Amino acid sequence: MDPPAAKRSRGCPAGPEERDAGAGAVRCRGRPEALLDLSAKRVAESWAFEQVEERFSRVPEPVQKRIVFWSFPRSEREICMYSSLGYQPPEGEHDARVPFTRGLHLLQSGAVDRVLQVGFHLSGNVREPGGPGEPERLYHVSISFDRCKITSVSCGCDNRDLFYCAHVVALSLHRIRHARQVELRLPISETLSQMNRDQLQKFVQYLISAHHTEVLPTAQRLADEILLLGSEINLVHGAPDPTAGAGIEDANCWHLDEEQIQEQVKQLLSNGGYYGASQQLRSMFCKVREMLRMRDSNGARMLILMTEQFLQDPRLALWRQQGAGMTDKCRQLWDELGALWVCVILSPHCKPEERTSWLQLLSKWDKLDVCPLEEGNYSFDGPSLQPTAALIPGPEEEEEVMTMAAGSRHTVFSRALQAGSLHWSDDHLQRILASDSYSPNLTGNGGSDKPSFDPQGRPLWLGEPFPTTCARVDTLRAHGYPRQALRLASAIVNTLRLQQRHQLQIYKQQKKELLQKGSTCITNMEGWVGHPLDPIGCLCRALLEACRLEEETLAIYPDSGPEKRKVAYQHVPVPGSPGESYLAMALEVALLGLGQQRALPDGLYAQDKVVRNEEQLLALLEEVELDERLVQVLRKQAGQLLEGGPFSGFGEVLFRESVPMHTCARYLFTALLPHDPDLAYRLALRAMRLPVLETAFPAGEPPSNPLDSIMSNRFPRWFILGHLETRQCELASAMLTAAKGDPKWLHTVLGSIQQNIHSPALLFKLAQDACKTATPASAPPDTTLLGIALELGLQVMRMTLNTMTWRRREMVRWLVSCATEIGPQALMNIMQNWYSLFTPVEAATIVAVTGTTHATLLRLQLDAARREELWACARTLALQCAMKDPQNCALPALTLCEKNQAAFEAAYQIVLDAAAGGLGHAHLFTMARYMEHRGLPLRAYKLATLALAQLSIAFNQDSHPAVNDVLWACSLSHSLGRHELSAIVPLIIRSIHCAPMLSDILRRWTLSAPGLGPLGARRAAKPLGADRAPLCQLLDAAVSAYITTSHSRLTHISPRHYSDFIEFLGKARETFLLAPDGHLQFAQFLENLKQTYKGKKKLMLLVRERFG
C-alpha cells in the first residue's frame, strides 16, 4: 500500500509553548474521569483538529495531547469489521487465517514493538515468525487516523486483500489495549515550532543524512523552490503536516481500499461458476450489512463499488445476446444486491444529498441494457395493508394488477428507486418507532380515514403494501435500530391479525356460494413467500433476533466451522401486549405467509425462489423448540388456515394455479402430531391437493407418460412441477409412517393418495416406503400398512400396464415380494388377476417364476396342500400367458409345468397350435432344443420339422442365423434313425437353397450310420451312400444348387472376386464327385461355363489352369 498522504497544511507558530508533563498521567482506578478527558473524548469524536485550532486561538499543549490521545479508535469491533474478510478459511481452519485472529495472536505473542504516536499518526514494528527454516520477518506499519476512525494504513507486507492485514490489526489492538504505554507526541509541526534556526538546520541535515538515498532529490528540489522568492511554495501559508489530522472539509470515514474491492469482485464474478466465489460475494454483502448496522458510511460506498463491477460482468451482455437466462447463483447474487440497495435508500438517518446521489446512480444503472430484470411478475404498487379485504377482486381490478405487473420494464434496481419516494416523517410512524407504550390515549385519531389502532388499543401500520412495510423493518435492523424495528414489526403483526379476522368474517358470509361454485379466483395474485423483498423472512428474523439466548459475538465466519451451534430462543414479552411474546409472533407470521393462498409466479427462477424461500422459513421454524405457548399458536393458526377459504392455501376451495402447501403442511403435521393428531391429519390431508393436476386428470384418468412426473410441456408455466410432486409424496409418506398401527387413518391417507397423486413413479416410491415401514427387522409386520403398500403397488401396475420401461421389471418383482410378505392368498390373488396388472411376459417370467422359487416357498412356510395349490395357480397363469403370447411365454410355461404331466402336455399342445398359427422358426428351434435337453427327442424332432417348414435360406445366405439350428436338426434326425432322416430330407431340400450348406449336411450324414430308430433297434450297420435313397435326392439338390449359384455369381462378378469363385468351384467339384458319374457331370458343367462366359477370358484362363 502507498504511505499515508499528508492530511493538511499547518501554520508555523511563532514560538514554543509551555509543556505540561503531567497531562498524560494514568488516572487512578476507581476515581471519576477528569473533565479534561471527558471533554477531549467528545471533541476527538466529532471535531477535526483544524476546527479546534480555528475555533480557539491558542490550544494549550495538554489539551492538544488529550485530544490527540482520544482520537484513535477505542473499540476493537471496527478493527475486527475491517479485517475479517479476504477469503473463506479452509474447512478445519476456522478463523485461523482471518487477519483479525492472526493479528490478535501476534499481539499476544509480543510481536509489536517501537510503537510511536506522533499527532494523528501511529507507527510501529511487527515481527512475524517465519515458516520452518525461514528467518523472522519484520514489518514496519504506519496508521493515520482522525475522529476515532482509521483513515489510511501502510504496511511493509504489501497486503493485497480487501481490508487490513494482520500487522495493521496487531498495531491497532496494541494502541487500544495498551494506550497508556504508547509514547505520545504532538504533531510534528508543533515540535518543529519549538526549535530555533540552528536546531532546525541540524534536524534537517540529520534527517537527510539518515535517508539520503530516498529523500535527497526531493530535499534539493524543495530547497530550490524555497530560495526562489516568487515560487508557489512561498505563496502558501504554512506547510503540510501528515501528523496533524484531517481538515474540516476532508471526508471522515474509515480507510477502504476501493481498487482492491473492485479487483476482487471482478475476479470472483469471473469465477462465478464455483461455489466458493458465490460464498465470498455473499460474505461481502454481509460485510456491507455489518457496516450499515454500525452506521458506517463505507457500507454504501462499498455497495456502489460492487454494483459497478456487477454491471461490468461480461456475461451479462453475452446472456442478453443469446437470449439465455443467467445462472441461478448469479441471479441470487443480483437479488441480494437489489435488496441491499432498498435498505440503503430507505436509510432513516442519511442526508438528503446522499440519497439524491444514490438515486441518480441507480437511475443511470437502471437504464442500462445489461441491467438484469426482476423475475416473477410481482407488482410494484400492490394492494396496501387494509383492515378489510375483498374476497374476490373484480375483473377490472385484477386486470389492472396484471397489466401493471407486465406492462413496464422492472429491473433489480426498480424497487430501490421506488423506495426513494418513501420517507420516515409520518407522525404516526414516528410515534410507533419512538415508544413501546404508544396507545390511543396518547393521541387522537382525529379525522383520519384509516384506523391507527386495533380494538385492543395496539398500534397499526396501514396504507402501504405489505412487502414495503417489511422492507422498512429490514432497513431499521440493517442500520442498527433493533428496538425500532421490533416496534414496527409488532404494529405490522397487529395489522395482519386484524386483516385476517375481517377476511374470515367475509368468507363466512359467502362460504355457501363459493362451495357450490367449487372454485374461486385467486385473492393474492402475488405471494409473500418468494417475493423479491422477502417480507415474511424480514419480519420473522426481526422478531426471532429479539429472542435469541446467546450473546452476539465477534465471530467472523459463524457458519464455516465444522459444527454449527444450535440456536436457542426464549419468550420475550411484547411491551404493551400482555401475554404476547415476540417468539409467538414470529411463528404466527411465518405460518400466515406460508399458508397464504397465492398464484405461482412466472419464470423458472421465480418459482425456484418460492421453493427456496419456503424452505428457508421452515428451517428457521425448525430451530424453535415448541413449548405449550407455541403449540397453542400452532393450533390456532392451523384452525384458521383450515377455515380460511380462498385466503388460505388450506381452504376448502382452491385456485387452479395456486402454490401447493405440501412443505408447510409437513412441518405442521410433524409439529402438531404429538399434541393434536386429529388436527394434524385434517390439515395434512387438506394439503395433499395439487389443483393443477386435478383439473388435468379428472376421475382417475392416467397421465400420458405415467412412469415420470407430469411432463412440463403439458404445463409450460409450471417449471417446478416435478419438485412439487416430490414434496407431495414426502407429505404422504410422513402420514403413512405416522399412521402405522391405526387402520382408520391409514385407509384415509390411502384414499387421499389415490385421489391426489398422479405420478406412478412416486406412488411406487410410497409403496416401497410403506412396505419398509410395515416390516421392521425387530418387530412383527403391520398387516394393514402392508396391505396399503400392496394396494398402491397394484395401482401402479394398472397405471403403467401399457407403458414398457426398464422400471416395470423392478416394480413387478417388488410387488411379488410385497405380496409374499402378506401371505400366500395375496400372492395367488395377483396371479389370478394378472390380466389387469401384468403383460403375459411379466406374468410368466417374473410373477409365476418368482412366486414359486425355493426362497419364496420357504418364506411362506406352507404345508404340502397349500404349496401344491400355489403351484397349480402358477401353472394356470403360465398356460394362460402361453396361449395369449406363445412367442414369448411358451418356453417359460413349459419350464414351469415340467413337474406336472397334464400341464406339460397342455403347454406342448399350445406350442403345436401356435406353430400352425405362424410361430417363428427361431422360437420353434429354441423349444425343440429344450425338448431334447429334457430327454424328449421325438418331440424335439417334431418341433424341428415344424421350424424347417417355415424356414427359407437363399443361395447366398451362407451366414444365415438359423444355420446352426438347421445343422442341429439334421444331427437330431440322423441320430433317431433312417426313417426320421428320410422324412426330413424333403424339408431340407425345400427350405435350403444354399449349396455349401447342403453339401455340408450331405457330408455329415455320410460319415456315420443313422442312430436308433423309434423302436430302439439298430436299423443300419454301415454309413449311408450318397448315391442311394434317401441321400441321392439331397445330392441332386446340392449339385443343382452349385450350378444355379455359379451362374448367379458369374452374372455380376468382378476381377477381384475371381479367386473366391475358383475356390467355390473347388468345393462344387467335391460335391459332384460324390455321384458315380460326378466327374463327367463336373466336366460338362465346366465346358458349359467356358462356352457361356468365354468373354471373361482371364477368369476362364484361371478355370483351365485349376481344373483343366
TrEMBL record:
Residues covered by region (Disordered): 1-25
Keyword flag Zinc: yes
Q: Superkingdom, according to UniProt?
A: Eukaryota
| Extent of the signal sequence | none
Q: Where is the SWIM-type domain?
A: 139-176
> Which InterPro entries does the annotation name?
Znf_SWIM, ZSWIM4-8_C
- Keyword Zinc listed? The answer is yes
Q: Which residues cross the membrane?
A: none
Q: Which Pfam families match?
A: ZSWIM4-8_C
Q: From the Swiss-Prot or TrEMBL record, what is one GO molecular function term? A: zinc ion binding
Could you identify this protein by its name? Answer: Zinc finger SWIM-type containing 4
